Amino acid sequence: MRVLAIGEGMVEFRQDSAGGWQRAHGGDVVNTAIHLARFGFGSALFSALGLGAFSDYLFGEWQGEGLQLDYVSRTAQADCGVYFIAVDAHGERTFTYRRKNSAATLMMQLADEQALRKALMSADLIYFSLISLAILAEPDRQALLDSLGEVRAAGKAVAFDNNYRPQLWGSAQEARLWHGRALRCVSIGLPTMDDDIALGIASDHASVAAHWHDHGVAEIVVKAGRQGALVDGAMLAPDQAIEQPTDTSGAGDAFNGGYLAARLHGKSRIEAARAGNKLASWVVQQRGAIPPVNAAMYRPGDEIPGV
């Protein structure tokens, strides 16, 4: 295992051109973990599922993608979340969620504490997001951050995405509080500019980077949509400008996958951001958060796209 991703996966239904719904799957940290697995990295998921048909579907899809599922608990207390995507003529998506009290909200309570600690210490990279925290009860959020703080102090790489979904929080103030606590555990920051602006803690990409740096994050790349990504103080634009995206679902997760894959191979931050831009550009030209494998995009080793 090289990577341990912590968070929620859900069944996805996306609207097709005929007005029907196509079943797939997604979830921010799961999307990134799948991209890393496709690049050939041993990627494990820490989460929870129910025992119903939708949860069985997710488990099977994750197995098929090569994710290690030893740390995915199964419970009869709840089932997995579901979300629906409608995409407009410009490729922008609208989400409708059915995830309240999903099985993933119980993942800390269902986990074997010693097994989780062992998994965290065994991984080269731990990856989570603000959504990973948002779905948990407060005591579970703090327990997770305590564990991440320990592994960060032990020298492990911990990557964090600031995915802010207002509907998952009681208020922006609550989200800012936990965002700040999370940053104390983080060595690699993967913020999206618009999310930190929405949280009220930044006004542009430079102030996002400054905020994360002031909270002790050493490595920061700020995703800025079509502009590309801010890395080492400079904006790196995508090599390919996408004037009319098909579906922007999962674009940021794909960037994270490309970036982290390149960094795990020892590439520079600039090279890694280029890889992230290229994978994100490919994803927005497909449908769904996790498009089917395109072998040209998933060559292992030094063949990571953009490097």
β content, as a range?
15-25%
C-alpha termini separation: 23 Å
Compute the number of helices: 11
CATH topology: UDP-N-acetylmuramoyl-L-alanine:D-glutamate ligase
**CATH domain class:** Alpha Beta
**Total count of domains:** 1
Q: Give the CATH architecture.
A: 3-Layer(aba) Sandwich
The percent range for helix content is 25-40%
Low-confidence stretches: none
Structural class: alpha/beta
Q: What is the average per-residue confidence, as pLDDT, rounded to a whole number?
A: 92
Number of strands: 13
Radius of gyration: 18 Å
Instruction: Using the alpha-carbon principal axes, give the shape.
Output: globular
Oligomer: single chain
Q: Give me the CATH superfamily.
A: Ribokinase
Q: What is the H/E order?
A: EEEHEHEEEHHEHHEHEHHEEEHH
> In what order do the strands lie side by side in the largest sheet?
5-4-1-8-9-10-11-12-13
Largest sheet: 9 strands, mixed
Any chance you could write out the topology, listing elements then pairs?
Blueprint lengths: L2 E4 L3 E6 L5 E6 L1 H11 L4 E7 L3 H12 L3 E7 L6 E7 L5 E6 L8 H4 L2 H10 L2 E5 H5 L3 H16 L3 E5 L10 H12 L4 E2 L3 H7 L5 H10 L4 E5 L5 E3 L2 E3 L14 H14 L4 H15 L24
Parallel strand pairs: 1-4, 1-8, 2-6, 4-5, 8-9, 9-10, 10-11
Antiparallel strand pairs: 2-3, 6-7, 11-12, 12-13
Helix pairs in contact: 1-10, 10-11
Structural summary, described in words:
This protein is of the alpha/beta class and 307 residues long. It has one domain (3-290): Ribokinase (UDP-N-acetylmuramoyl-L-alanine:D-glutamate ligase). Helices cover 38% and strands 21% of the residues. The chain contains 11 helices and 13 strands. The protein has helices at residues 28-38, 53-64, 107-110, 113-122, 130-134, 138-153, 172-183, 193-199, 205-214, 251-264, 269-283; strands spanning 3-6, 10-15, 21-26, 43-49, 68-74, 81-87, 93-98, 125-129, 157-161, 188-189, 219-223, 229-231, 234-236. The strands form 2 sheets. The protein has a 9-stranded mixed sheet with strand order 5-4-1-8-9-10-11-12-13, with helices on both faces. A hairpin with a 5-residue loop joins strand 11 and strand 12. Helix 1 (28-38) packs across helix 10 (251-264). The protein is globular and about 45 Å long. It starts with a strand and ends in a 24-residue tail after the last helix.
